[in-house]
Amino acid sequence: MSKIKLDLHDIFNKGNAIETELNRVITEASEKGIGTVEIIPGKGSGQLKKRVLRFLEQKHIRRLYHRMDKDSKNWGRLFVYFKKK
User: What is the full per-residue pLDDT of the chain (85 aa) written as tens digits?
Assistant: First the structure.
C-alpha cells in the first residue's frame, strides 16, 4: 500500500501554503488511490495540529477519506486513511 508524507515544519507560518499543501495531498491521495497520508504538523504549541484537524473536518474534505487517526506514540503526527478503489 502506498503512502504520501507531508511534513509541515517548513511552512508552519505560511497560512495559505498550509491549506494549499493539505488540499494537494488529500486530492492526490483520493485521485490516485493512495492508501495513507501521513501529516506531520509537529509538536510545538499544538496550534498547527488544530488547524490541520479543522481542515480535515470540513465536509468537502471529510468525504474524500475513510478515517483519521492521531499517532498514539507521537502526538505531532496524524494519519489519514483512504478507502481502496
Answer: 589 999 998 876 777 889 999 999 999 999 999 999 999 998 777 888 999 999 999 999 999 999 999 888 888 899 999 987 6
CATH number at residue 66: 3.30.1370.110
Q: What is the DSSP string of 21-72?
A: HHHHHHHHHHHHT-SEEEEE--STTSHHHHHHHHHHTSHHHHTT-SEEEE-S
Sheet holding 3-7, edge to edge: 3-7, 36-40, 78-81, 67-70
Give the structural domain span for 28. 3-81
C-alpha cell at 2: 502506498
For 3, what's the count of Cα atoms within 13 Å in the CB-facing half-sphere? 10
